[in-house]
Amino acid sequence: MKRLEGKRAIVTGAASGIGRASVRAFVAEGAAVLAVDLDAQKLDEVVAALRPQGEVLARAADVSDEAAVAAVLNTARSAWGGVDIIFANAGIGGGATPFFEQTTEQWERTLRVNLLSPFLAIKHGAPLMAAQGCGSIICTASVAGMRANASSAPYSASKAGVISLVQTAANALDGSGVRVNAVCPGLIETGMTQKLFDTARARGTEGKIGQLNPLHRAGAAEEVAAVALFLASDEASYVNGQAIAVDGGLSSTLPFARQRK
Ligand SMILES: NC(=O)c1ccc[n+]([C@@H]2O[C@H](COP(=O)([O-])OP(=O)(O)OC[C@H]3O[C@@H](n4cnc5c(N)ncnc54)[C@H](O)[C@@H]3O)[C@@H](O)[C@H]2O)c1
Hints:
With 261 residues, the protein is of the alpha/beta class. 42% of the residues lie in helices and 16% in strands. The chain has helices at residues 17-28, 40-50, 66-80, 104-132, 153-172, 194-203, 221-232, and strands at residues 8-12, 32-37, 56-60, 85-88, 135-140, 178-185, 188-189, 219-220, 243-246.
């Protein structure tokens, strides 16, 4: 029996990185997946490649737009009669603007995509799950939401907000059978971080990437997808309201100068 056999899942940010890896993992484990992304063309390519392996639907949508999120949930209801898993994963980087030069517009845009959108997914998705008495919602936060210095202030604040959101949502849904958790990736090679990796490779400094965590390397999208898959599955049936770091140990580590070998 596959780990998500018979489950119906929505994955946002599905055209790239962690979302794309998660769609692949969910389909491989037997779920029907509604893949959602702003980038319609890339989404179609991802979905077309996976269709031979299972049921994968594509929906281009801006997940920070409430009407669009409600429409995505309506698509799931019409296609499947309900939904068992929502992975609210879409997000944007916060940019590199110095702290005192950041604008209200940057803050609003980052909070809208990174924090409002998982709230909207919960607001419109959880009632469907509660009606069936079970469901799993996973949101993508970040180590940047646990500690400073992993990204810009609006990004970090948005991701700290996601950690709080899954805690409050799990409690708002008490007695419903719906679980809400977050994954907190460390540095992962995806579309969001590609420039950093490309620049380091071009300079020959790739070996320095990830040196601050005890595994001394960056992560792969599939390693985050594996944790999202666990949280989505019934194996995580007693895991609720948690934010789980997938960061090679970065968030467990105090800064220190490593001894050179
Ligand atoms: N890559 C990392 O190092 C890292 C670390 C911590 C957290 N994260 C988080 O992981 C999540 C996935 O990012 P990724 O690293 O896979 O990046 P990515 O850029 O490869 O993928 C993000 C996807 O989200 C989509 N998207 C962005 N805004 C959207 C919107 N408004 N509506 C619908 N889709 C939208 C993009 O089109 C893209 O396909 C994000 O929430 C990100 O903040 C990433």
